[in-house]
Write a structure and sequence with these properties.
The complex is a heterodimer. By secondary structure, chain A is of the alpha+beta class. Chain A contains two helices and ten strands. In chain A, the strands form three sheets. Chain A has a five-stranded mixed sheet. Chain A has a three-stranded antiparallel sheet with strand order 1-2-3, covered by helices on one side. The radius of gyration of chain A is 18 Å and the shape is elongated. Chain B contains eight helices and 28 strands. In chain B, strands 1, 2, 5, 6, 7, 8 and 20 form a seven-stranded mixed sheet that branches. Chain B has a five-stranded parallel sheet with strand order 11-18-12-13-14. A five-stranded mixed sheet of chain B has the order 23-21-28-25-26, with no helix packed on it. The chains are: A alpha+beta, B alpha/beta. Chains A and B meet through β5, β6 and α2 of A and α3, α4 and α6 of B.
Chain lengths: 121, 419
């Protein structure tokens, strides 16, 4: 049996996961999302990634970005490397794609800030 | 002279919510912010997890703030950025707010005030670290500002003192940017930050957490070269002989936040020594008539969702305020609680759905919050666990308890018997 803490929400439930053949028995969770998290931690742990990307705009040295969906935990540093290679040189609004399908993970790196929001019109 | 019904000081999440709520309640509203952009500290909180309670979504700080900023910018609210409040004075009809900005000095008239001035980080001087004064000692928020807004990495190899949430978030953030975080040292025997942050910020990146440890000295002339860490005893005093030197070029402090209430105090608002924010009633009005408090100026929150909620409550209270005599009763807390808000109720106001926020003093399993009036239990709520870093929130209908000015209201936490 392994024990872990759920990171899905601030509640931080203490979870116990027991492997029963091909399935898992999860206890300690307060919701369905906790169960899904516990199982994913045993099979393919996923994480979100929030960071910044360099820009060419003097007033905005870096722009906050995030991945559009969770990525495998082991891909965090490779994705960081991919983001480091980019310089944003045009206006982009919230959700604007900075890196499409980063490293072929099926997930985009998107702007999480309005700092470089295009002017109206 | 500009005149307003409600003037909100501070354009962070509390002030944004307060201004929106004041306007919705029909008040002519002004929002004053000292920085160039609205959003407060959320501008540099680029990690996600904001808004889970309010929007059922995991947003980054800038994304969460923008939802409110967009509404504020839709019109109907006066917004003065790059504007600093230098003085508040009472007048016959309300308050005179003196501000300085690029246009010079101006005095604004307002009927009521909402103080949404946030909090400040405790600094190295406030935790008595000995040694030299080298560069490289930062509060976690300063390190966050450098990293996330200026794009400058403030350290390559650092120690973090204190396990508050911002310190944990920065441990992960600096690691992602290529810095080596040697460890997080916490004086207390339990972590100060949210449990999930211990896991997703430290465990995920193999960053060690040393409980019952502190930094006892900093070394270095121009730049920090090392810190001395020591174990501490049960009274949090360093144990002689346990010192160890850790070579590093950065010391990041995450040792607590203190509500910023200089303006509130200038008006004579009574502060609660437990929360370090103003003593408030169920409408979040301070001891000064017409002055309301919200967000981290009221008490330090761990979730922005509750910051926004308190802003809405204070904004509504300020918009609806009409001078009236108070009929007050105190809500006392037993030693099992670290703090609770509100600290009192005005029986002349509506207390039928009062949000009550509290923290336990210790980590407790299987316990119950008990509300007693004149020694008799009138309300209780069970919790599987309570942890001081995690503030609890519930709605209480205080009108059901037959309260008057002489009622003794007490909040207590009882650990349930183990079967």
């Amino acid at each position: 049996m392994s024990e872990l803490v759920c990171i899905v929400c601030p509640r931080g439930c203490a979870l116990q996961v027991e492997r029963e053949g091909d399935t898992f028995r999860v206890t300690g969770n307060s919701c369905k999302r906790g169960e899904a998290f516990a199982i994913s931690e045993q099979t393919a742990p996923m994480r979100t990634l929030c960071t910044t990307v360099r820009t060419a705009f003097p007033g905005v040295p870096v722009l906050p970005v995030r991945v559009s969906a969770e990525i495998p935990k082991g891909q965090i540093f490779p994705v960081m490397e991919a983001i480091r290679a980019v310089t944003v040189d045009r206006p982009v609004d919230f959700g604007g794609v900075i890196l499409k399908d980063v490293l072929g993970l099926g997930v985009d790196v998107i702007a999480a800030s309005g700092l470089l929001r295009p002017a109206d019109g | 002279m500009r005149t307003y019904d409600v003037t909100v000081i501070g354009g962070g999440p509390a002030g944004l919510a307060a201004a929106l709520s004041a306007r919705e309640n029909g008040a002519k509203t002004l929002l004053i912010e000292r920085e160039a952009r609205l959003g407060g500290i959320l501008k540099q909180c680029i990690h996600d997890g904001f808004g889970l309670v309010r929007f059922q979504e995991k947003l980054t700080g800038p994304e969460y703030a923008q939802r409110f900023i967009d509404q504020v910018e839709r019109g109907g609210i006066g917004v003065s950025t790059l504007t600093f409040v230098t003085r508040l004075e009472r007048t016959q009809t309300g308050f005179a707010v003196t501000v300085v900005n690029r246009d010079g000095v101006e005095t604004i008239q307002t009927k009521t005030l909402v103080l949404a001035t946030g909090c400040r980080e405790r600094t190295a001087k406030q935790v008595s670290i000995h040694g030299t004064r080298p560069a490289g000692v930062f509060t976690a928020g300063t390190a966050q500002h450098f990293t996330n807004l200026l794009g400058q990495l403030p350290t390559k190899r650092c120690v973090i003192l204190g396990s508050g949430d911002i310190g944990l978030i920065m441990a992960r953030r600096l690691t992602l940017e290529g810095a080596k975080v040697l460890g997080v040292y916490e004086t207390k025997p339990t972590p100060s930050g949210l449990t999930r942050n211990i896991h997703q910020c430290l465990r995920d990146f193999d960053i060690p957490l040393y409980l019952s440890h502190t930094v006892t000295r900093v070394l270095g002339q121009d730049r920090l070269t090392a810190v001395e860490v020591s174990q501490v005893d049960g009274d949090m005093r360093p144990i002689p002989g346990t010192q160890e030197l850790v070579a590093c070029d950065g010391l990041i402090l995450s040792v607590g936040l203190i509500p910023e209430n200089e303006l509130a105090q200038s008006l004579g608002a009574e502060l609660d020594p437990k929360t370090k924010g103003p003593v408030c009633d169920g409408q979040l009005m301070t001891s000064v008539d017409g002055v309301f408090s919200c967000g981290n100026a009221l008490h330090v929150n761990d979730l922005v969702d509750y910051v926004s909620e308190s802003g809405e409550l204070a904004g509504r209270g300020a918009a609806r305020y009409a001078p009236a005599p108070r009929r007050e009763v105190a809500i006392r807390t037993s030693p099992a609680l670290l703090c609770a808000v509100p600290q009192r109720l005005d029986l002349n106001r509506d207390n039928s759905k009062t949000p009550l926020y509290f923290r336990s003093r210790e980590v407790l399993d299987r316990c119950a919050l008990r509300l007693r009036v004149d020694g008799r239990e009138v309300f209780s709520k069970r919790y599987p666990f309570l942890r001081p870093p995690e503030m609890e929130r519930l709605d209480v209908d205080f009108t059901r308890f037959g309260l008057d000015e002489n009622s003794q209201i007490e909040l207590d936490i009882e650990v349930m018997d183990h079967e």
